[in-house]
Amino acid sequence: MNTRFLTTAACAGLCAALSSGAAPPAASRPVTVDDLMRLRAILDVRISPDGERVAYVVSTPSLPKNEHEAELFVIPSGGGQPKRVGETVRIFNVPVPRPQLRWSPDGTMLSVLGFTGTRPQVFAVPVTGGAPKSLTTAPEGVSAYEWSPDGKSLAYLTRDPMSPDEERQRQDRSFVIHADAPDRPTRLVVQKLDSTEAPVKLTPPMHYVDGFSWSPDSREIAYSAAPRSGFSAPYETRVYAIAVQGGTPRTIVDRKGINQGPVFSPDGRQIAFISTNGRTDIMSSRSLTVVAAAGGVPRVFVLDDAWVNEFVWSRDSRSIYFQANDGTFGRGERMFDQPVARVSIDDGRAERIASGATVDFSISLSQDGRRMAYKAVEGRTMGDVIVLDVASRRATKVTDVNPELHDFALGELKPITWRSFDGMEIWGLLLTPSGARPGRLPLLVYVHGGPGGGFTHGLFPQFMHIVPQVDPYPTAAMASAGYAVLFPMPRGGAGYGEAGQRAIVNAWGDADYKDIMTGVDALVAQGIADAGRLGVMGASYGGYMTNWIVGHTGRFKAASAGASLSDLADTYYLSEGGEFMVDYFKRPWENAASYAEHSPMNYADKVTTPLLIQHGEVDPRVPIAGAWKWYRALKGQGKTVELDIYPRGGHVLREPMQQREQMKRNLDWFTRWIKP
Asked: Are 429 and 50 in contact (CB under 8 A)?
């Protein structure tokens, strides 16, 4: 992708393109919300042990069934015709597909989580044909699993069943929920394959296990666990190891903060995991960390405050391939990339492996380490499977799961930059309609969630790592309708390191608000945006910022706030993640004035912008009580406001029918108030 930069002084090419009068390119079909709801997403990619084939899972929204359906395919590593396998398995898809795709060590079978009745179990799918079979019968279902390297056993995670007393109470309707009562623990279980022996629970009930890895000799399992469950439990995880034959777990890493997802090196000498390096606040970087398998002092690869999302060991155990946002390969014009990179264990040097403007997910290596497969998302795509020759770095795209995208007018998406009020360089993405004609464009500003979130390349720039239709704002359809869309990356979010995240402590709505508004000012000054046709939208923290913005300026003609915060004290008291408000503002009784000062609720009388509020009925992250308060505060003062409540909806909407309705509602809302 060729990047272009916008500053407050010059357009660097884009302005000229919009004002040259040149004829637009040959017309492509505009994108509609219904088109977006037909797009398919790759959710999991795994290369075979011999490197000759790649398996992947494709998720497709089904409006008639009101669910996201998943299908399993295999394709030659060099490309060719994909073959669907395991058609009779209903891949686990509640609330969205989570297939947990794996190859058996000998490469003869694939495995996924699929339904047996209402519970997910591990299914084995013969690659060369034959009926799939269920490998597990866990009463509470399986949430994660791994084959042993020798192929003789399966380890999986499952919850303890209900006690007889709880079963009785649920049957006779006398069951009561006790606040802060412990959930049933998640245990690590080992099951021998081709054996009649009962599965064995390895971990104690006080360990809530969330990740694990087999040792190369199949004799031991490393795992991470917290002493409780809940939204903030990951910040209390420790790393342990236990013999497959049972016994007392040995502690490998015992310190505060996140210590998650341990993975043995192929030589069995080291364990890599993701860690906040002893810190417990939500803004702490999640770094790649390595410790000796026998225990000792962990070694942290900070990588300039990179937030590591996934990783895999090289086969010689001398380096680790990883994918991260922010950090060494995610700054400046590259903050929208999340490429495959590699770090040397010996000297800590890191290098980028995947080239171009790309966002990569689901990395796997062949047994000999010569080939890598992953999902790659570029500018205006949904992502496809890439096979990389590791030695030559030659990348081959082997799928085209959404060929119709070639015929759509998807708009132009480019990184841009501007200077904020204090001179800080701020970045964003600018989406403009395909073949935009001369003249100023109506501009919609889309603020990301978080606060520590951000945008990437892709048709749904916040959600390319999951089923992307959870995005409430159909920006591709908005561009087709004639709108430009600005995706700003204000301080407080990804792209500026840990210091940037901490820049909004006790200060939501201050500098971050100014970062956004100076970006709008720059686009207006350059003749790109029409100052009389501005809209703003966002969900979660983006919803907070939308509420904040309309309470501090009347420049926007319409706004839409999803899953939004209006009273920050309510977030502490009512949210499942309320404790993290302490990291930003302390506790409400310790900092009452600042909570009030930075709550949109207290600026309701200043709002003049028509506002659409959208909220899931059972959102645990931002409970709906806040939406009702905000709505009634505005309605009672005669403001133009509407509130849409989505039954069964959580912090994001998972049902395709609701996803389509929310996207259409947002497009209609802005079309009503801002003519494209």
From this structure: no
Phi, psi of 101 (to 5 degrees): -65, 135
CA distance 138 to 664: 41
Residue 129: which pLDDT band, with cuts at 50, 70 and 90? confident
Q: How confident is the model at residue 31 (pLDDT cuts 50, 70, 90)?
A: very high
Using DSSP, state whether 43 is helix, strand or coil.
strand
Residue pair 136/142 in contact by the 8 Å Cβ criterion:
yes
Task: Give me the residue label for tokens 């989580």.
Answer: 113
438 pLDDT band, cuts 50/70/90, is confident
Cα 254 to Cα 455: distance, rounded to the nearest angstrom:
34
CB of 369 within 8 A of CB of 320?
A: no
Tell me the DSSP string of 224-255. EEESS-STTGGGG-EEEEEETT--PPEEEE--
Rounded to 5 degrees, what angle do the CA atoms 422, 428, 434 make? 140
Provide the pLDDT confidence category of residue 238 given band limits of 50, 70 and 90.
very high
Q: Write down the mean pLDDT value for the chain.
A: 94
Distances (CA, A) of 117 to 72, 156, 158: 20, 19, 16
> C-alpha distances in angstroms, 26 versus 408, 434, 487?
11, 10, 27
> Do the bridges between strand 484-489 and strand 425-432 make them parallel or antiparallel, or are there none, so unpaired?
antiparallel
Beta-sheet strands, E only, within 127-237 = 133-134, 144-147, 153-159, 186-192, 200-201, 208-214, 220-226
Helix (H, G, I), strand (E, B) or coil at 571: helix
Is the pLDDT higher at 16 or at 181? 181
The tokens describing 39, both together, are 């797009």
Residue 658's alpha-carbon distances to 409, 524, 545, 645, in angstroms, are 25, 35, 24, 10
Q: Above 50 in pLDDT, residue 260?
A: yes
**In this predicted structure, what is the pLDDT of residue 9?**
30
For the domain 14-32+405-673, what is the CATH superfamily, name and number? Alpha/Beta hydrolase fold, catalytic domain (3.40.50.1820)
What is this structure's pTM? 0.94
Enumerate residues 6+ apart whose C-beta is below 8 A from 527.
Answer: 11, 15, 18, 19, 440
Which region, left, alpha or beta, applies to residue 397 given φ > 0 means left and ψ of -120 to 50 means alpha? beta
